[in-house]
Amino acid sequence: MRRINQQENQKQKTSLIPKVISIGFFGGLIWSAIAAISGYFNFTTITPKSFILRSWIQTDWSDQWLGQIISILIISLLSIGIAFLYYVLLKKYDGVLPGLLAGIVLWFILFWIMEPIFPNIPDFYRLESDTIVTTICLFILYSVFISYSISFAYLQHLHEK
């Protein structure tokens, strides 16, 4: 009986922080890998290495597969911060719409507002239409993955209590 009470207390004390960390990491890992594959098949000219490494490091290795893998891992770590931001601001909203809107906002921030700090990324009006459509879709899918997963984990956590 005492062991059951300890397990129930343990369940009540668990937080969503480990889930948010894993959702953010794997969301970044999965969707930046898909972005790299999209670049390989020429759906987009902008890949993870375009943002992370090639904007500041112009060496041979950063333009090859090693640069792509390192960039994917860095994006996965940065994605944890985005997942926490979503958890703090939008965890109570479920459905696809919050993720869709968050993806568009995230794309807008990276491609319009933060564009000057990425010298390797062309200006918006110089991007090909395939690149624009592909990157917007990838950002939306990434954000919907993060938002839906965090909202589901949050609602599940509420039902456990």
Strand residues, percent: under 5%
Q: End-to-end distance, in Å?
A: 20 Å
Rg to the nearest angstrom?
Answer: 18 Å
Main β-sheet description = none
**Average pLDDT value?**
88
The residue fraction in helices comes out at: over 70%
Task: Count structural domains.
Answer: 1
Description:
InterPro entries: YqhR. The protein contains six helices and no strands. The chain is mostly helical and 161 residues long. It has one domain. The longest helix has 32 residues, at 129-160.
List keywords for this structure.
single chain; 161 residues; mainly alpha; 6 helices; membrane; Conserved membrane protein YqhR
In short:
The protein is mainly α and 161 residues long.
Helices, strands, pairings?
Elements: H1 2-13, H2 17-40, H3 48-52, H4 65-90, H5 97-113, H6 129-160
